[in-house]
Each structure stands twice: as structure tokens, then as C-alpha cells.
Design brief:
This protein is an alpha+beta fold and 289 residues long. Helix content is 42%, strand content 18%. Helix 2 crosses helix 4 and helix 7 packs antiparallel against helix 9.
Length: 289
Amino acid sequence: MNIKQMVIRKNELGLSYEQIAKLSGVPIGTVQKVLGGVTKTPRYDTLIALESVLGDHPENKSLEEDGAIYGSSVRKTFADFVSSEKEEAEKNAALAAKIKASKKPGEFTLEDYYALPDDQRVELIDGVFYDMGAPSTTHQIVAFSIGTQIKNYIDSNNGSCVPLMSPCDVQLDMDDKTMLQPDFMIVCNKDKIIKRKVYGAPDFIIEVLSSSTKKKDMTTKLTKYEKAGVNEYWMIDIDKQKILVYDFAHEFDVTIYGFNDKVPIALYEGKCKVDFAPILKEISFLLDS
């Protein structure tokens, strides 16, 4: 079975790299490199381990080792894995519901936040939990593209500030009642960055608006960011193709840009500009879908 056949089988089964890694025992980084064609000469034992999971391809149904047919074995293992994952998700959801029902909104603390299962993505604002749904593909493309342009500028100018992408916890008010996860941020005081989170207000924040978070991003978080000392806050509205820039450091100046503009960052005195034209081109195939 060659790598191309493995990739085809991976897509047929709908397996993620993480799932293949768990089923085969091969580190996820190795799985990604082998199936992604990065590793041109993978080790024999790695190929055998991957084939044990993906070896039920139509052209290779009869693969046997020690008298065991891998196809049926893998199907059973995969079914058990899916069942286990479903049970785990149900347990996590039940635990999250129990925690959220244990107090009234406004009473939750970081202790409750950290007690939630890892798959329960929320933000804690002034003791209130706000659920966060999975971001859309357009959301991710836009956030990543903006972050890449800004990071390239910082790197090319030997900048000392640190760009960070979500998910990354921000203990904005340095108390035990608020923990946020901005889509993108820049932190210039490295003392604020610790291994688990950012402790204090970032200098620059971007939120990409979505239907589930728009109200929170445009009202609650706008106020929180200003009061906490964030210097600059951008809100990206993909549907309207608008960028709202709040420059808190310069008398709360507000400017609206479009997706054909190059938007200057006040933090860098306008020398760094995010060009939204290529970003719009990149997501154009998704805007009408």
C-alpha cells in the first residue's frame, strides 16, 4: 500500500490525523509529515503501523499478518474509538452543564473556568460564562492571514512585540472573574506572557465577528478592552466586508475601512499596514456559499 492509497483511505474513513495517531501509535507529527508528503522516505515500522489502520483500501483488502485480517480489525477498532469518543463528549457535556448550573451568572470564577473540560470552549467575563462555537472556515482564513501579515512585519523589522493567535487565554483584568480568548493580539510587554496565558491587557487586539459572538464583541468586549488599557482594537465584519478600528490610545478615534483597503496599525505609527485585498481574494470562493 503506497502513501497515495493511504491518503485516499484516510479520506474514505473520515479520519483525522489525531485519530490515526491514536489508532496506530505513531506520533501525530509523523503522521502529518508522512501522509502530507513531507517525509519522502518514512521508516518501515511507521509504514506498517499506518497500514494497520488504513490497510482496508479496495486494492489491498487481503493484507494479513499473523493470520489476522487488518480490514475487519481496523473497522472494529475504529468503531470502538468513535463510541469511546462519543461517550467522552457526553461526559464532558454533562460535567460542563453541572458546573454552569452550580452558580448564578456573575458568580463564576477562574476555578470554575479551569474545571470545565478542555472541549468546552468558553469565555469568562465578569463572572459570566459565554459559550464559543467553532469558528467558520472564513473566520479562520481571515484571522490567520491578518496574523501572518503582522508577524511578517514584526519579524522583518526585528520587533520585540509578540503576536499571538487564538486560542490563548488572556486574564484581562488580572482578577479571578474574567478570562478571554481574542482571535489575535500583540503583546509588547513580555512580562505579561507566561506559559499558560497572558496576564493583563494586550496592546493590540483583533476579533473576527461571527453571528454567535458579534453582540459580545461589539459591546461587552469593546468596553472591557478599553477599560483594561488595550491601545487598539479591530473588529472584522466579514459579511459586510468592513473593519472597525478603535484607537483607544488617541482619544478613542474610530475609523471604518473596507476589504479593499490597507489598514494601518497605530501601534506601529501606521508603518505596518494590513492589506485586505489579498485576504478578500483568498476567501472569495466562500462568500457566496
